[in-house]
């Protein structure tokens, strides 16, 4: 299994789905086989790529154990990108799984049967810390936190990190912060500059060097069912997410190389 990254923030409107779609597309353009799992009942990632669930179903059927995840995968306009779609039915999964033993590990078990062809698996989480997000964090090796450069941004991220630490002690000891991503950045405002400085002071090297600016084209792309790279490759938004994909790849390859050197020799 490749690197599993949950893209999460319990606060809505921070660019979470835009990041999920655009980073997945950037990794695919870099010829890294990538799977984007839409775990949000709003199905914004699914719709933003111009898709809808096929006859086999969607992530609701996977989480409830009706079908294996590989049966619902959909191709996209990018050869190296596949999608596990969502629908409103996923809302019911949280209710139906209450009281079911091991409900936090439904996604992790589903991914265990996934083919090894994916180097990256990105999970677009709902804007909450409910059971679906907990499932994503139980399955993931890293969490990527998009943060809008606005008032009280650091406070919201701190709450998510507290949840991360609790989960590390209970259901996923290997879960790490993949990185904090500054989104909707406006370099003309003191507020954006201050939020960026505060986040870098708090999270240090875990804040991505890439910063995503406010960009009209990023907002337009989902209505055309395309990732930003296929909608407007020359836009600032496209450039930012391509840079983010390169940064994620570099971090992953550096970590993998370090782990190989740390393994004991026979």
Describe the structure in your own words.
The chain is α/β, with parallel strands linked by helices and about 270 residues long. Helices cover about 45% and strands about 15% of the residues. It contains 11 helices and 8 strands. β6, α7 and β7 form a beta-alpha-beta unit. α5 (about 105-110) runs parallel beside α6. The longest helix is centred in the C-terminal third of the chain and has 27 residues, at about 235-260. The relative contact order is 0.18. The mean pLDDT is about 90.
List keywords for this structure.
single chain, 266 residues, alpha/beta, 11 helices, 43% helix, globular
How many E strands? Answer: 8
Structural Rg: 18 Å
Broad shape: globular
Ranges with pLDDT <50 over ≥5 residues?
A: none
Mean pLDDT: 92
Instruction: Give the N-terminus to C-terminus distance in angstroms.
Output: 24 Å
The major β-sheet equals: 8 strands, mixed
Coarse structural class: alpha/beta
Number of helices: 11
Strand neighbour order, sheet with most strands: 3-4-2-5-1-6-7-8
What portion of the residues fall into strands of 2 or more residues? 15-25%
